[in-house]
Amino acid sequence: MSLERIKTLIIGSGPAGYTAAIYASRADLKPVVYTGMEPGGQLTTTTEVDNFPGYPDGVDGPTMMVELQKQAERFGTDVRIGMVTEVKLNSELGGIHKVKVDNGKEIEADTIIISTGATAKYLGIPSEERLKGGGVSACAVCDGFFYKGQDVAIVGGGDTAAEEATYLSNICSKVTMVVRKGQMRASKAMQHRVNSRKNIDVKYFSEIQEVLGDNVVEGVRIINNQTSKTEDIKVTGFFVAIGHKPNTDIFKGQLEMDDAGYIITDGKTTQTNYPGVFASGDVQDKEYRQAVTAAGTGCMAALDAERYLASIE
Ligand code: NDP
After folding, report:
1. Which atom of ligand 1 is nearest to the CA of 161?
2. Is 299 a catalytic residue?
3. How far is the CA of 120 from the centre of ligand 1 (A)?
4. Which domains does the chain have, with CATH numbers?
């Protein structure tokens, strides 16, 4: 299969990837986007998006992603369905980076923008899988509003779970937080926030045995891992906040990453430790993880790529 030489390759098609594509194509970098396994990214698995500026009546996730794609294509972005499977980055200034795509195609690129995102971890129990979209969610900020005035449960004991439990406690009547150990992993400040909320009930040493309900969530069955006692708690929403896995496996051994595998970028920029290689969106952000922040860093990555190309010309 033929070898292709391009200026800018964008890997990933969430808000970060498409925003990078809009900026890069308007700057005449003629970007090629490889969508990855889940074209449109994590937002295609959510329903209503009510917090992206510019949509006063909200928009559903898949529609928003189709619109972002169209916007990128309007300026000439070449969007291709496919997975980048192999990457050989060049550490020299102005060096050519090489990638392989799953159809065997090889591409050489002056710049690469990595926007491969992160994947929310789930517990992996069948009832949770069955009720995804029926009251099981991995994003309280996205879906919490649907449970206004209702009782919900959240599993996890890290900063995300603590932050999301606090967020939910502002909206919902009662939040049951299920923590598998005798203490939370979250920072003391976050724990303090959780403990100061009267409507958050923390169940320590507890695990989710089953999410209850046929088509929609009606409750959760928890088990105390010290006493083996089970308890059914009536809830209409169940939130999973046990961490995310950044999609960075193909870059391991080349790009600098933190212990959890998130790509490290330089200061306020999207620059990775390889010249001409930039990272945007959730793949380099474990704290904010919002569509709008991902889009913002996508814009930054395209501007960084444009400036880099100008500097080596
Ligand atoms: P973490 O990996 O820090 O925490 C995951 C939590 O989920 C832990 O309490 C863990 O329990 C629990 N857990 C994992 N698997 C299971 C399971 N199968 N069943 C039940 N519980 C499980 O992930 P976070 O997403 O919370 O945070 C990721 C990173 O982002 C951290 O570095 C965090 O500090 C940072 N962050 C910072 C924020 C901020 O500063 N505002 C906000 C959000 C995140 P256990 O403790 O028993 O292992």
Report:
1. 26
2. no
3. 11
4. 4-119+244-312 (3.50.50.60), 122-240 (3.50.50.60)
Dist. CA 159 → ligand 1 center (Å): 6
For residue 92, give the DSSP letter.
S
**Active site (annotated) includes residue 266:** no
pLDDT digits (tens, 9 = 90+) for 212-248: 999 999 999 999 999 999 999 999 999 999 999 999 9
d(CA 189, CA 195): 10
Neighbour tally for 74: CB within 10 Å = 11
Q: Decide if 57 is catalytic.
A: no
CB-based pocket (< 6 A), ligand 1? 123, 155-161, 163, 180-181, 185, 242-244, 286-287
Which carries the bigger pLDDT value, residue 195 or residue 47? Answer: 195
DSSP assignment string, 29-74? ---EEE--SSTTGGGGG-SEE--STT-TT-EEHHHHHHHHHHHHHH
Q: Give the pLDDT score at 46.
A: 67
